[in-house]
Amino acid sequence: MKAEKIRGLEATELEKQAKANEEQMFQLRFRMSMGQADGLKKYRELRKDRARILTILRERQGK
Fold first, then answer.
1. Can you state the angle between helices 11-33 and 40-62, rounded to 10 degrees?
2. pTM value?
3. What are the backbone dihedrals phi and psi of residue 12, each rounded to the nearest 5 degrees, phi first?
């Protein structure tokens, strides 16, 4: 997800998205540990998206 698109969302929507990303990361990490999924690229993408979301939330809190 691009930072421009993230900035267009409201804080509550960002929090929901961050929580959803966290859940997907957990499930993907679990499947990778069991050897069922080759989702390293997807995991990295989710981690970066979550970091972008949290960064923008913190920027808004500082204002």
1. 150
2. 0.82
3. -65, -40
